[in-house]
Amino acid sequence: MGHQAPDVKKISALIKVLNGGIEFYQEGVEKIKEANLKALFGQMIEEKQEAVASLQGFAVAEQGHTETQNDFGVEIRSMYTKLLGNFTSDMAHTYIEQLEEVEDKVLQSIDDALEVKQPTRCATELRRIRTRMQQCHDQMKWFKTESEKRRLSPALSRTS
């Protein structure tokens, strides 16, 4: 009796989250003014595009075609950010805050895919991508923390 390799699972769902993140970052690049954030968002887009490209072969193995759709939850977060943008003077903070949450969702989606038995090549690629996406998450978390400090500093100086 031959040994059968495990089937690829949960890769298409991960690609949808990554695609949603790419689109959301692209929107952020268009909406914010800060050059440093535009560069950061561009880097995040490139990282996610590279991850999607490296996973598409596994998506074909999983579902018979490449994945081009976005995750609905990421799309909702994007719409929410647009709505918030109508009521805030700090659009950059709004995008940073929401995109950091998208990074959380990316990591969770990778972890979900790693929790099931994957073919060795797929699991290896997922672990490589997880390392890069953790770095993206950590960068966004740092920017979120700094943005929150910046927003609080005028209020703190008034109370002193």
UniProtKB/TrEMBL annotation:
InterPro entries hit by this protein: CHP02284 (IPR011971), DUF2383 (IPR019052), Ferritin-like (IPR012347)
Organism domain of life: Bacteria
Ranges for domain DUF2383: 9-115
Protein name as catalogued: PA2169 family four-helix-bundle protein
